[in-house]
Amino acid sequence: MSLHCFFGVELQPNGSPVTPPLPPKSVLVITHCALTSAQPGIVTLYAQSHDQVTRFAICTLGADVGIFYVPLQHIFAGGISFTLISSASGAASQCPAVHLTGYFESDEESYTPDGGESDDSANVPKKGPTTARDDYSSGSDAGDRSGSERKIGRVDSRKRNQGKQGSNRSKTNSKRGKQSKH
After folding, report:
1. Could you tell me the pTM of the whole model?
2. Could you give all domains of the chain from N- to C-terminal order, each with its CATH number?
């Protein structure tokens, strides 16, 4: 079972690092960065791992350039600090702050008390959209999958084939029509 907890912080463009507390056996997934106001000024969000000395630019926002929001999908597994820097040489208080949001994700069933993975993790379906091509590309009958998952795979396969059959039917019907006329 995967647990998700909301994460959100407002960062000021003063260059002060903000370190969110990371729960044990969790990762932090950053999903959105948005300006808090339409004040002029350009700001850049940086991330720095506690294991490295280099910081990395995540995104740059600014009402001046029409970038008010940036969707993100960054996953951080260890200690991380976020810093917002203004590109203006003037006072940082004139630049907008940003809201940085995401969630903490913890997969408690995949870990046993001794630190190893449990056998249940093998039965957890993979994340993301499942297509028939993914399910049956190996050529094996997915015997270890539940019946409902096989049904979903077949439905996806039919939908894909219906689109192909629809275009093939018109070609086949036109060929039959030509053949019957001769």
Report:
1. 0.57
2. 2-113 (2.60.120.340), 125-169 (no CATH)
